[in-house]
Amino acid sequence: MPTATDIPQMSPLPDGRFCVHGTAVVLGQRAVLLLGPTGAGKSGLAAQLIAHGGRLISDDLVVLEPTARGTTCLRPEGAPEAMELRGFGIAATPVVGSAPLALAVLLGASGPRLPEGETWGPEGGKVPFVRHPTTADLAAKILIWMRAE
Fold first, then answer.
1. Residue partners of 83: CB distance under 8 A and separation at least 6
2. 55-58 and 118-120 beta bridge pairing
3. Global pTM value
4. CATH number of the structural domain spanning residue 64
5. 4 lies in a domain?
6. Phi/psi zone of residue 114: left (φ > 0), alpha (ψ -120 to 50 degrees), beta?
7. DSSP state of 95
8. Mean pLDDT of successive 10-residue segments in the chain (149 residues)?
């Protein structure tokens, strides 16, 4: 299972929601949450997913709302409709306000080749959790996985 030392922690908000350092992109009607330390490649991977038809919820900070149906990713109030493109600067990006969370991906050390199904998220709204290094084929893997689920 993910531990407090290897993924960003969800910080509780007064209204029962949580915030997390990450980037969320909608693929189809569901969100993938990209987690990892600063510089891990969250925004770069999000840019690849957006180039393939994804839509940005939020870059760098995401609000998670546990619901009866799972967890919803939301844009923080006042978040810019933009994302950081390392080496290019800040770019305006069309955004969506929210989507149900379907997958959390931790960018960093690789997990097992055929993982045994870790989950992550608020109680009652946990989703599949994948550990993967930032590689050139990761966006394609996420797109294929999301279509298959």
1. 23, 43, 46, 47, 56, 59, 90, 91, 93
2. unpaired
3. 0.92
4. 3.40.50.300
5. no
6. beta
7. B
8. 63 96 97 94 96 96 94 96 92 95 92 82 90 95 94
- Tell me the residue range of the domain where 96 lies: 11-148
The rounded radius of gyration (Å) of the Cα atoms in the chain is 14
Question: Rounded to an integer, what distance in angstroms lies between the CA atom of residue 131 and that of residue 44?
Answer: 17
Residue 2 lies in a domain: no
Strand intervals (E) in 28-97? 30-35, 55-58, 62-67, 70-74, 82-85, 89-92
Question: Residue 3: how many CA atoms within 13 Å on its side-chain side?
Answer: 2
Q: How far is CA 65 from the centre of its chain?
A: 14
Collect all residues with Cβ–Cβ distance below 8 Å to 34 and sequence separation of at least 6: 22, 23, 24, 25, 42, 45, 46, 105, 107
